[in-house]
Structures are given as structure tokens and as C-alpha cells.
Amino acid sequence: MPDSRAFVQHLSEALPYLQRFFGKTLVIKYGGAAMDQVEARLAFFQDMVLLRQVGIKPVVVHGGGPMITAMLKRVGKTTEFIEGLRVTDAETVGITEMVLAGAINKGIVAEINRQGGRAVGISGKDGNLIEAVKHRPTRPGQDPARPEDGIDIGFVGDVSRVNPALLEALDNSGFIPVVAPLGVGSQGETYNINADTVAGAVAGALRAEKLILMTDTPGVLRDPKDPATLISSLSLPEIERLTREGVLSGGMIPKIAACRQALEAGCKVCHIIDGRVPHAALLEIFTDAGVGTLVTLS
Amino acid sequence: MPDSRAFVQHLSEALPYLQRFFGKTLVIKYGGAAMDQVEARLAFFQDMVLLRQVGIKPVVVHGGGPMITAMLKRVGKTTEFIEGLRVTDAETVGITEMVLAGAINKGIVAEINRQGGRAVGISGKDGNLIEAVKHRPTRPGQDPARPEDGIDIGFVGDVSRVNPALLEALDNSGFIPVVAPLGVGSQGETYNINADTVAGAVAGALRAEKLILMTDTPGVLRDPKDPATLISSLSLPEIERLTREGVLSGGMIPKIAACRQALEAGCKVCHIIDGRVPHAALLEIFTDAGVGTLVTLS
Amino acid sequence: MPDSRAFVQHLSEALPYLQRFFGKTLVIKYGGAAMDQVEARLAFFQDMVLLRQVGIKPVVVHGGGPMITAMLKRVGKTTEFIEGLRVTDAETVGITEMVLAGAINKGIVAEINRQGGRAVGISGKDGNLIEAVKHRPTRPGQDPARPEDGIDIGFVGDVSRVNPALLEALDNSGFIPVVAPLGVGSQGETYNINADTVAGAVAGALRAEKLILMTDTPGVLRDPKDPATLISSLSLPEIERLTREGVLSGGMIPKIAACRQALEAGCKVCHIIDGRVPHAALLEIFTDAGVGTLVTLS
Amino acid sequence: MPDSRAFVQHLSEALPYLQRFFGKTLVIKYGGAAMDQVEARLAFFQDMVLLRQVGIKPVVVHGGGPMITAMLKRVGKTTEFIEGLRVTDAETVGITEMVLAGAINKGIVAEINRQGGRAVGISGKDGNLIEAVKHRPTRPGQDPARPEDGIDIGFVGDVSRVNPALLEALDNSGFIPVVAPLGVGSQGETYNINADTVAGAVAGALRAEKLILMTDTPGVLRDPKDPATLISSLSLPEIERLTREGVLSGGMIPKIAACRQALEAGCKVCHIIDGRVPHAALLEIFTDAGVGTLVTLS
Amino acid sequence: MPDSRAFVQHLSEALPYLQRFFGKTLVIKYGGAAMDQVEARLAFFQDMVLLRQVGIKPVVVHGGGPMITAMLKRVGKTTEFIEGLRVTDAETVGITEMVLAGAINKGIVAEINRQGGRAVGISGKDGNLIEAVKHRPTRPGQDPARPEDGIDIGFVGDVSRVNPALLEALDNSGFIPVVAPLGVGSQGETYNINADTVAGAVAGALRAEKLILMTDTPGVLRDPKDPATLISSLSLPEIERLTREGVLSGGMIPKIAACRQALEAGCKVCHIIDGRVPHAALLEIFTDAGVGTLVTLS
Amino acid sequence: MPDSRAFVQHLSEALPYLQRFFGKTLVIKYGGAAMDQVEARLAFFQDMVLLRQVGIKPVVVHGGGPMITAMLKRVGKTTEFIEGLRVTDAETVGITEMVLAGAINKGIVAEINRQGGRAVGISGKDGNLIEAVKHRPTRPGQDPARPEDGIDIGFVGDVSRVNPALLEALDNSGFIPVVAPLGVGSQGETYNINADTVAGAVAGALRAEKLILMTDTPGVLRDPKDPATLISSLSLPEIERLTREGVLSGGMIPKIAACRQALEAGCKVCHIIDGRVPHAALLEIFTDAGVGTLVTLS
Fold this sequence. Notes:
- Six copies of one chain form a homohexamer.
- By secondary structure, chain A is of the alpha/beta class.
- Chain A is built from ten helices and 14 strands.
- The mean pLDDT of chain A is 93.
């Protein structure tokens, strides 16, 4: 039985990783192709169930930009973007919340549960998980000492505080938390927050073993058009240098910022990996070769 | 200080009720005017926080029909009704879920939390809380032994099983669960379920001390147009009789059915109360006079 | 139903105080008019049961001077007073203990239990709760470095150590401790101790949230004969000044000393309130206006 | 070192008894000579501390008749006896309570604690430990179906219910409960109850391993004047027979009744032993020969 | 990366088995080729560590016949066999114990621990795990009602009682118990017991999910010389029949008897598998095809 | 009953020691005459059971030199000694392990269990309790900075690390650990270690209350031939001095070294006592006079 032999051989190879990550918390930003492609999607849900089953604790934070855009279009709401950020009025944030917390979040939950998992979908408002303040992009020529002079683009938020008690309660009872990237303001208002940012803040608050950000590229690339320029590991000081040199740009900026926040708050290591590869998360966790880009404190 | 005197007097009067309900679970269906009127709404949220604070465990199940209808209209979706039930295709149930689990549910959570509570919003899909099967209204002349011949109105569900582990985990950690009335089918599909029905099923599964259904009438009325015909208490046998006599009808039918299901599964007593009265739930729990209609097993 | 409305309104107003004091320990010196007047007495017992029911932890320390005096008279025992303190020979302390621990203490317990509480009466000898040494009033012209030269007035004690394990065991099991102000010496001998002093020492040892001393005046008065001269708050430095100025005198001296000891050992705040007002303790705890005199560290 | 050798030999001989009684509850009625003679008294207190130290759980119930009589005489209160029971008016029961719960109880506590124990003194009113009803001796010719026609001798009580939660809380925290034989009526009134009766009721409620009643005789004697007529063991049926034959009489009657009540409620065995012998309780527990009279169910 | 792909695919395929056996106890008789061949031996130790790591609880029972025989020879001790059982005098059982509990047991422990496990080696004497009585083979013509007339072959034992407290303590602390097949008699004497028998008794006492017996054949064979005659499953009734037909014989007899004992005491299923195949235990547990012979109650 | 009287008197005298050592861990090196003489042996086992029964936690470490020598002789293995240490090749350490872990260890376990105890025998390999490295006696003229140049005498070990988790698991479940003095090397190989050394290392790792080393002399003697020269107490500085003076020599050297290691790692006090006296351990623990030599830090 040649295949059985490979099967048990592979299980045996997993042992050192099972030992290393037992009881550890992994925060995983789920989005992009891993959410859109059928095979990668199903594999991701299986991975989450497998991790929980062997005593590793995944916390999933998901995004949902395209579906929000589609819904806004459906209800005839046009959107303006400033500095790459959607200007978000009260109606827009309401629709955003419905899509994130009502549609995408519960869809992920149902699929994980179909694989035999026990997922629970929450948003940053539940149990006051994510407290937020208004995000104000800097105006040209703005006095850096006065962030309150930044541009008002509505209900787009920055994380001001994470209250992880709800995540801990769910963890202790064996549930897999699935988090929609919304925050709650001091008056109870809702803020839309970048999902990478939320994942970084949660990984920091939980002092997670790993933060894994799934993207649609093989990792951080020196030349975004050439996969062969993958940077396999980066420390925060190197990031400083590469940023000054203009190598890091575009969608990588918030991911790198999320890694920085997580690492500085006590998360051990971060990974930016290619979500288009089925079981990418499992590969990252259970092999030494590693996939994508490793980001470390120093 | 006359007012202070009344204040402490009232606190003292609450003592016997505090003692009686300490540690007990109350399932409360929240909807109608209590949701729409500002004063009643705020009072309701305060009541939930107060109950949890004094060691009583509320579980809130909410409805949301009008907001669903508005959203469907907004996206240009027309709706057909059969036997008073919305024919619910896949797109409709998707929008229903977004409104219930994404908008209404999180709004209630944020408001309870603003009052100092620790609410967590979930739907019946989270932790497989509510397992559901397709609800098929009976066709005229249908063989009663073949319920599967009933009319297919899409993703409208009946509760087939309640898995209360998630509610218990939240309770044990001091959270107030707020439940959107959705269920999950055996293939992971979503079902919209009547909120009274969900509340009754949850009250039964938790063997709750009380099921409280909030309505827009003073309770069960002999003559729906005459508040003076309030029936202050009803047993299941009396309900049988009144149903045969045609006294119970319209929106009371699902409420009465929810009470019956809850009582038969082990819930102690049920109350149908007037949600238009601010603090109606608190009044029901903390006074002997009682408000609305009490429904008991026998 | 106008009264019901006020009732639920009042319950709602209590919410912030319920949240603030949940799980906190309050040490209450009970005595004077609150013990002698029927209405205030009954109200006090209800208050203790209510506090425990909502998760606040009262510890009651009671006095009993008049009843001791009556009993000594009854058995034909004459008493000499030195510096306002009863000279207490072995027989006197025996009768004192019988009255405090056997009559008054058990009477309070039975009344709290009649209100539905679960009180347990103990003295400072039980579980070695209050360890004591002989109190020796200073002789005129005595060398301050030699307190052992003070006057021997028998079995009147100072607290030398509090062992709170018994209070904690009772608290953890949901009981309300009621403490008779007696201490035990190193040879097992009994000491009568001022009840304010015991309350202060216990509040300090438990690092209580509040020490509440019930008196027969509205609080600390600048002019003991004029209630309008109530001092609503006092810090320890202000007390120093007022003492030097001779404003504080008589029965207030031991109360102020008890506050000082409690605050210096870690009790948060102290209150000297008017026990003649029914539900005075509840009013102090559940209103912001406050009653009587607040004593704070600084 | 001959004595050391005997010392360790004796410790070794204790082993089987330590194993047999570990974690078991023993209820011990303490009174008579064991209370009055210095050597027996001190030995008793050491025994209680030793038992608790090795993981056996003693509950002490004490009497106090002579001291009550002395105190009543002291305050000039004359007493009438009916059927050997003191007619107990409100003042008498008040003095009784002071003596039992205030003087004797706290004296025992202090002495046990001096031996290094952690005793706590309570009465049957604390934590509603002993609920009582009026005891009415039967009138000559009274209809047995109407016990309420019995003689009213005031506040002398029968145990109607034992609530052992307080004893369990003290046990779990490592304290030795010392119980004064008083009960509380439905209106909060105090009842004096025979200490043997209380011990029997408590032993039954706790399903104790042993009830030990200390007396001033070697045990149950066929001829009260001849120690050689000691009956070493008795079953309930044998007691029936001896009672009919008139062999059992006087002070043995309530002791035998206490044994019966304890055994019928689930206490394993009862012992009536000679409290004049120092360490009598320890001897009974740690030797096979046994001392006094063993009383068993059958 | 083709191999990585197979790797994660195989991990995913393990999920249903991980879910099914989580928290379950498996008793595994380890011996024969799995002990003697280097590859199979190493694979076995890895398997035990892997099982424990993923929350499955293995209990290993080992044999050791050849090594005992070698040691007896070494010390010049000749051995007689009766009915296939070694006649075991006091010296022989002493050497047997040294080899089993001192050499083989500790060797297995050290190897499991080298793989990162936390094994603890015990024998049936530790914590009185296996209580035993003398095994007496039946004499020809012996009265079946008098087993005590059987042949005395010395210190060969039958299991009379299993005390699983030690196994549970080790399990709860995350250790893997490794058990040498020895029992202790009522006088403290040692008995050598067949390892299959011990495994069956332990599996029954623990109500294990599986008993796995490793042999040097593919399972139960109809013709011991022809692997193609493997019987893939057997119920107890079928075993009765095959035994009567003489199909089951030789070394299979004690294995079948061990299965019967385990199943009748509450073990779910038994497997007789080919220990020569590396990772045989893992293959049995993690594949549906199954390997060897399954033995079930009915 | 004069003897009973002495019996209870002795129990009472034990009380202060029971109080002082309750819950404390005592590590006891068991060997020499206490192992060989029937009376002392039986007394020792009773003592261990008694200690555990009264809540004191013994950990037994045993030796076994003579039995190892006998077994080696039996199998025709000659032994060379260098610096008083047995040169230990692979075969020798294998036989040593069999004798220590398989014969002596399990014999002690069975005897303790016969006295009603719950002993569990382990070696330093179980749960990786004792990690070891090769012990290399210093060569004459060897560079002290190069311990690796010492003489290779095979599998004789030094303790490099103690992992007390297994001892704690056994303690928490009420078992008495009995430890064979073997260690495990980084490649899984076995090392024979001096039992005094193991006891000292374990006492240090557990921060034991006492380390008790049983010898065949009255303690440390100034003149080994004259018991009258017993040194009743020694501090580490005094040991330094006596060592320099050449007073300490022979078998006392490793015992003194074990005491030093234990004390420096946090063990409170050490005792070197005369194991030939029955119940020597109990006498040491339960009398103030003390027996043998007390070794303290300073």
C-alpha cells in the first residue's frame, strides 16, 4: 500500500510542528483569492478545523472589499475615494456592516462548521472587541502635531483598543472566532477598518504566536511584477530601509504596518503568504521551508 | 429628601424578585414598538444590562421584518407572500441575513454595550446554534401524513434542533447573547425563521425560567380591538379551547405556538407583554401584578 | 400605572451603582439609633440582604454599649470609667462577651435571615479573627516612649492583627458576616474593643471599597448642636488641622481614628452617616449626592 | 531511647485508624465532666485539633446546663421544671442564649485555637443551621393525634430541619465548627434545644461517620450504680426491648433518642462514652477495643 | 511543490480520524517484530508521540518473552514448560520482573521520550494497577467446579482486578503510560502475566475506544500459512463457532481471549494487526480500509 | 488502661510536628541497613505510609549497590573500580538498571502498598525525571579548566537537570514516588548515578522541606570508629573547614555533597541519620531532640 505509507510518513513529519504550536494562538487574515477561488476556499476552511482539532487556536479576521462595492452599486450608492480610502458616510458604513458582519462573516462560519468545526462569527462591536476612533488621512502641509486637522472621510476607523475577553471566552470553549473588521466608537457608532489592521491589532493584543496575512502575491516582492524577486524574510529595521528606498508600496503598506503593530505589541512573528495556493496556511505552519515573506522584530 | 426615600423603598421592594430570579435564564423576544420607539428602546437596553448585573441571565432574540422589507425594496426585489409567509429565494434570504445579522443584531449589541453591558451578537448559524429544515405550509387537501408535499416557499425554516453550547459559553463569561433568528440547514444553507419561534425553541432548550414575548398589544385580547378584553392568564388546555372557538388568530398564533413549544420542552412560564410600555420586561419580572398574558403548561 | 413607572425608573437609576460596587466589600459599623429604632432597624436588615443579593459584599460590625450596661446593672455589677472607658475586670468582660456575642450578635443574625439573607454571627475570637493586646490609656506625664506605663483598665483591647480568612470563607460561600467587637489575646483571654475601631481594622485588612460608620448625627459637624454645620468631606490632612483646632471631639474621635486606620491600610473611602435615617446605608451607596461626611486619604 | 521507641510505635499503631477515618465527619457532643475537669478539658481540645490536622473532620456540639442555671440565679430569675424540662419564658431563653452562644461557645473556641486549631463558634441561628418548632411535652391523657395539645413550656424546641451549608463551608475552609444548641423558629424566635438532640440531628444531616456522645458514666449501664454492668453494644431493636423492660431511663433517654435519629438519617454508628477519661474521644476513634457503648442500626 | 501538496492533502485526510478519536483512550499491546525490527520500532515510538500530541490517549502494554528466556539462560536457569506456560519459581519471576520492568520497560520509555514524548514506565505493581491470583492450568480430568485443583506452575498469574487510578493520573498530566505485564498478589508477591491478557484487562477497565494487539501475522488467518486467508472481521459469536471448528489455535487463543475480555467489560472494538508493517498502529487508526482483523462484540 | 493512656498521649505529642510539616515535601534516601534488616525495613515502609496519610509528602530515592554486585557476579561479569567508582560498560549499566528499576524499586513499591500505601516506582528516565551527563573523575595533574579530560569510566553519570513534573503529578494524585537512581543522557542512554546525589538533586529541584539521608552510622562522626564523636549539627562553612582538616572522608563525602547541592538549590535542611534504628525517619521528623547530624546552609 504505497499511498498509505506516504500518508503515515507525512503524519509523522507533522509531529515537530504539532509539538511546537500546541496551545498557541494564530491570527489569520483571510481574504483575496483564498476567499474567491473554490479550491483554495474549501482548503482554508479545512485547515482551520484541522488546526483547532490538534490544539492550535486560529482566530480568523476576514476582509470583503469587492462584495461591499457590489452591494453599494446595487443600492445605487456612488463612492468617492480619498487617498485610496472609501469616503464612508453613515449609510455606507451601514451597508458595509451588513455585508461584512451579516453576509461574509456568517458565510465563513457556516462553511467552517460544515467541515466539522465550531466557528462563531463576531464583529469588533461584539463584547466591545475593537474600540475605534476616526481615521483622518493627513492633509498636504498639515501640522504633524495636529492629527485632528486631517481629512474627514467619515466612518473609517483606527483601532484604539482591543478587548480580547470575548476571543478568550470563545477559545476556552473550543470555538473558532471569525472576526468582521468593524470597530465601535465611543458613542456606539460603527467604523469600517482595514482588515489587515484589525488582524495586526488582534495578534498584538493576544500576543499571538503568528500573524498570517494572506495576499494574492507570493509575498513581498522587490519588483511586484516579478515573483522571482520574493523577499523571504524582513526585519523591522530592514523594512524602514526598504520603505525609505521606495521598494515597499501600494497594498503592501498596510500589511507591513499591521505586522509592525503586531510585533511591537508582542506577537512573535508575521507571515505574508500567497492565498492563491490551496492550504497555504497549513503549508506555512507545517513546513520549515516556509512560504512567502517572514516579518520579524529584529 | 422625599425622592431618595421612594428610591430606596423601591429598591427594597425589588428584593424578593432579585432573590427569586437570581441565576435564572430569561429568553426575551424583542421586536415591534419596543424596537421602533426611542424611549421604549433605550429602556429595554437598560433593562437587559440591569438584569445581567443583578445575576439574572437574559437571552435576547430579535426580529426585523420591516427593515428587511425596506432593504428588499431598496434593491428592487419584489416579494410574494404565501399564507402570510414571504417567499424567500436565495437572494432574498441573503439580504434577510445581512439585515438581521449584520445591521439589526449589531445595532442592538452596540446599544446594550453603550449602557455598560457586555452583549455579543450571534445568529443561529454561529456554533450551529439553530439547526433548521425547510418549512412547508400545508397545501389545501394535502395528506397530513406527507408534510413533504407542502408548498415550497424557499428558505423559510423550522427549528429542528438547538445546540445551546455557545449560549452557555457566553453566559458563563458574563456576556448577554443577542440572537438573530436564522437557522442553518444540513448543507450549510441559511433559513429565515420566525423570531417568536426561535425564542420559544431557545427557551425550551435552555429550560428557561421565563419566555417573554414583546408585542404591540397589551397581551392576548379576546377582542383584538378592545384592550379591556385582556386575558391575564392562559393554560395550554385553555388555548386549545380558545383556538377551536376561533378567539386566537392572526399574529397571536405563532406566539402561542412558541409558548407551547417552550413550555413542553421545560420552560417554566411564558408571558406575552406590551412592548410599547417602557421597561415592560422589568415590570413583568419585578412586580407581582404582572403585565400582559401569562401562559402556563396547565 | 404611575407607581410602577417610578419603580422601574428607580431600578434603572441604580444600575451605575450596581456596576460600580459589584463584587466589592463594604464594612459597615452598625449601632446607635439604627439599632434602637424599629423602622431604621428593619430597613438596615433589608439593605444588607439586598446588597448581598446584587453581588456586593457587606461585613457588619455591631456595637452594644447600652445593653451591656443594662446587663451589668442587672447582675449588680458597678462600673468605674477612666478616660471614658469602662474599667473591665474578668467578670465584666465575661458579661460583655455574653451580651455582645450571645445576645446582640445572634439577634441581628436572626433578623437578617428573616429577610431572606444568610447571615452568620461571629466574634473576633472565631478563627482568631481579631488578635488583641491590652489598651492602656496614657497617664498624665507618662513617658510617650513607654506605653506599657499606661493605666491598666483591664480587658479593654487594641487590635494587634486581623486574620481575615474566616470572613473570606463566609463571603465565598455567600454568607453575610456579622461581627461582635471582641478580640482574643495571646493567652486566649477576651478583650472588649470599641466597635468603630474593629470596623476600621477589618476594613483595612480587607482593603474594603468603603467603610461606613453609622452614628446618631448627620455626620461630622463643626458645631455638634447645629446640623447645618455638616462637613461633607474631609481628608486626613484636614482632620489633622481640625483636631489641632479642637473642632473634632467626643465620640467623633474614635470614629475618625477608625477611618484613618482603614484608609492607611488600603480601604478606599470612609463615610460617617446618620443611622437614624431609614435605609441610610443604601442611600449612601446608591446616590451620588451622598449623605453624611466622606473621609478620604488625601 | 526507650520512650522514643514507644512513641513511634504508637504513631504506627494509629495508621489503620488514620486511613479508615480520613476525610470523614465526626459529630461530638461535648459536655459534663469533660467540660468541667481541667485535664479532660485540655485533652479534649487537643484531640479536636489533632483530628482536624490528620484530615478527620470534627463538628463539636456543646451543652451548658449548669452555667445557665447559675446565670439565671445570678439575675434573680427562678425557674420551674415540668417533666424535667425548664419552663423557658422569653427572658429565660435570652439569658440561655447569652450563656450558650456568648460565653461557653466562645470559651471553647478560644481554647481550641490556643492549641493551634482554627475553631469557629456558631449557634443554630447562624446560617439558619437549626430550624426549630416548639417542643410540647405530652399531657396525661392527651390524644396522641393532637401533639399541639401538649404542655406549653415556652421556648424549648424540637429540631424541624438542619441546613448544613454553613458547616460545609467551614469544613471546606479547614475550620472546626463549634455549635451552641439553639434553634430558630419561623418568626425568628430563639429556642433552647437539648444538646444531645442537636448533635444527633446534625450527625444525621451530615450523614456522619460517627456520633460520639460524651457522658459522665462509662456508657450505658444495666445498673446505673454498677460500672461492671456496662453494655458494650446496642442495636436499635435491642434498645426497643430494653426500653420496654425499663432498663433505659433518666438522662440516657435523650441520648438514646439522639442516636436513633442520627442512625435513621444515615449516620453510620454512635458511641456513648465516658467524658471523664482524658482523651476519651481519641481513644474511641483510635483503638479497636472501643470504650463505652456502641449503638448501631441493627 | 508537488510533495508539499501531498503533505497538506494527507493532513487534511487525517481530520475525520482526529475528530473521531480525540480524547479517546487506545490500549496497544506492543511486541514481536514491532519490537525487534529497527524501522518498525522507531515508527511505533513516533506514532505514540503523535497520538498523544493530537489529544488521543495511548496506553502501551509490552511483552518480552525472548529477552526473559535469554536472561534466564545467561544466569544458568533452565526452564520447564507446562501447557506452553513457563513454570515460574520465585527466582524465575524475580528475573522476569527485572527484565520486563527494569530493562524492556525503561528502554521503551527512553525511546518514546527521545521522540519528544513524555512516557512513564510502570508495572502492574505500581499503584496496585494489576491485582493478580495464581493461574492454574486445568489438569486432565479435573473437576471444572474445582479450579483450585489445577496445576501449580508457580508465579504465573491471572488478572483479578485492575485499579486504573494511576493510569488516569498519568493521562491527566499528559504522560504516556508504558505498562510491564506483571501483577501483584494479595501477599505482595509478583506474578508474570501474559501481555495480551493484561492489555485486554486494562482496555476493559478503562472502557477504551480500541484495543490494538500487534502480532507477527497479517491478522487472524484461516490458514496460518496463507496470508490470503485473512479474516477481516470477527464477532464474538463467530469466534465461538470458529473455535469449535478448530480454526483458531496457537498464539491466537490468548489474543482472542483478551479481545473477548476487553469487549465484555466495555471496550468498543479490538484489532489484531501486523506489527511488522511500520506505522501499523497509525494506519489502523487513521484509515478506513483498516488493517488486520477487527473483533467486535456482535 | 495504662497503655491506651500512653498511646493517646503520644498522639498528642505528635501534633506540633503534624502541624509544622503538613503539605511539605520530604526527600528520603533509603538504603543500607534500613533496607537489609527486616525490622527496620518494615518500619520504614510503615513510616512512608503514615507520613502520606497525615498530609506530608515523602519522595523515596533508593540505592542498591550490593544487589547489583551480586547480579553482576551471577552473570559472570567482573568489575573494575576506579576512584571508588565502578567502571560501567554498556552491559553493566543494563544489568544495573534491571536490578535497580526492575527488582529493588518494585520490591519497595509492593511492600509500601502492602502497608496500605499507594506507591509508584519510577526511574530517572521516566518522564525525563533525571537528565544526566557522563561523570569523569579527575585525572592526576589534569587541567581543572578541562573537565572533559577526566577519566572515562563508562555509564556513570552526574545529574545535569531534574524535571519534577512527574513527581508533582504523582504527589497531586496521592501517590508516593519511589525513585531508582538512574539518569538519561541526551541520546537516550542510561547512566547509573549515586543515590545520595540523586536524592540531593531531587530535594533541591522540589525545594523540599527536608532531605533525609539514611546511613549505617549514627551520623557524621569526628572519629568514624567512635559513636560518641557524633557532630549534631553542621553548617556549610563548617563543612568547608572540616573538609580542609580532613575530618570528613570516605562515604560521607558524597552525602555531604548531596546536602550542599540540595541546600544551595532551596531545600530547607538536611539530616544524615542512622538507618539501623527502626522508624529512624519518623523519629527525626517527630521529635525535637533530633537524631543524627543536621546540615544547614549557614
